[in-house]
Design a protein that fits this description.
The protein is mostly helical. It is built from 7 helices and 7 strands, in the order E-H-H-H-E-E-E-E-H-H-H-E-E-H. A hairpin with a 2-residue loop joins strand 6 and strand 7. The N and C termini lie far apart (about 30 Å).
Length: about 180
């Protein structure tokens, strides 16, 4: 019997949601709360992304619940001195949904904090995944997640927040949201 559950869990039947859009809406709700609390970004940015998720909900919910490692960003991938892949750290559970989500998180981090976006282009190409409107919508959702960390305390540490970094993040969000709106096929 196939179990179509979505979200973060060790096993599919433990995943919290019955549709992939619910995972995106949960991320947006968390970002909204944190952004409102810190007051460093306009909460209206969340509204703009949520509007697009809502408008495309039917297509988003057609995504299969594929299991994937959700935090394989550059900070969690170990490479050798020669640049060869060596391993992954911070693997405590899986996510069930669109396996492009961690690539979108990686692109969000690279756009926000600097780094070669070509890394993500190669990832998508080698995995046979598209850099389409939906991928850019995921990147927008995840940029909001990174933005929401600014001015908040996690594990007893306040995330440093620099106005230049915040401006870069907002420009990256606007760029990706524009692509998500324009590149719908």
């Amino acid at each position: 019997m196939e179990i179509n559950r979505y979200g973060y869990a060790a096993r599919p039947e433990q995943a919290a949601y019955s549709a992939w859009s619910q995972v995106l809406f949960a991320n947006l709700a968390r970002s909204r709360e944190r952004i409102a609390s810190a007051g460093l970004f306009d909460v209206g940015l969340v509204d703009a992304v949520q509007h697009e998720v809502t408008a495309r909900r039917g297509e988003i919910d057609s995504i299969d619940a594929t299991p994937f490692l959700h935090d394989t960003t550059t900070k969690n991938v170990i490479v050798t001195g020669e640049g060869a892949f060596s391993g992954i750290v911070d693997v405590d559970d899986l996510c069930f949904g669109d396996p492009r989500y961690p690539a979108a998180l990686t692109l969000a981090a690279l756009m926000a904090y600097g780094g070669p976006a070509s890394y993500v282009s190669a990832w998508l190409r080698h995995a046979g995944h598209a850099d389409d409107w939906l991928f850019r919508l995921y990147t927008s959702v995840l940029l909001l997640d990174l933005m929401a960390e600014h001015g908040n305390i996690f594990n007893g540490n306040e995330t440093p927040s620099d106005p230049a970094v915040r401006a870069t993040m907002q420009l990256a969000l606007e760029y990706n949201l524009d692509l998500a709106c324009r590149v719908q096929s």
